[in-house]
Amino acid sequence: MKSKHHSVYVVELQGIPGSTGRDVYVGMTGLKVEDRFENHRRGYKSSRIVKKYGVRLLPELYEHMNPMTWEHASQMEVLFAKQLKRRGYNVYGGH
Predict the structure, then answer these.
(1) pTM tops 0.85
(2) Beta strand pairing call for 7-13 and 22-29
(3) pLDDT tens digits along 70-88
(4) Is 36:81 a contact under the CB 8 Å cutoff?
(5) How open is the CA angle 87-18-55, to the nearest 5 degrees?
(6) What's phi and psi for 16, nearest 5 deg?
(7) Beta strand ranges found along 1-95 (DSSP E)
(8) Could you point out which of 9, 21, 24, 42 has its C-alpha 20 to 30 Å from the C-alpha of 82?
(9) What angle do CA 45, 50, 51 make, to 5 degrees?
């Protein structure tokens, strides 16, 4: 049985120059999501966009999916980013 300790997460982004919509970053991690977000904010293995514009986690968008295996999380990161784009979000990350 493969370990289910990975998560997909979504960070709200605010203040991106030229943005006119709801900006989010989609990522995946093997850490606790809150710890991963703090790493972004401190600049440790961080996405530059999250470090600069990340405001808060949006657990209402992702908690229902977690936890999952690494394989599933890596697939869901991409699929969920596409789903959020279809719902009108400006999505960063999610590859």
Answers:
(1) yes
(2) antiparallel
(3) 999 999 999 999 999 999 9
(4) no
(5) 65
(6) -70, 125
(7) 7-13, 22-29, 54-57, 89-93
(8) 42
(9) 65
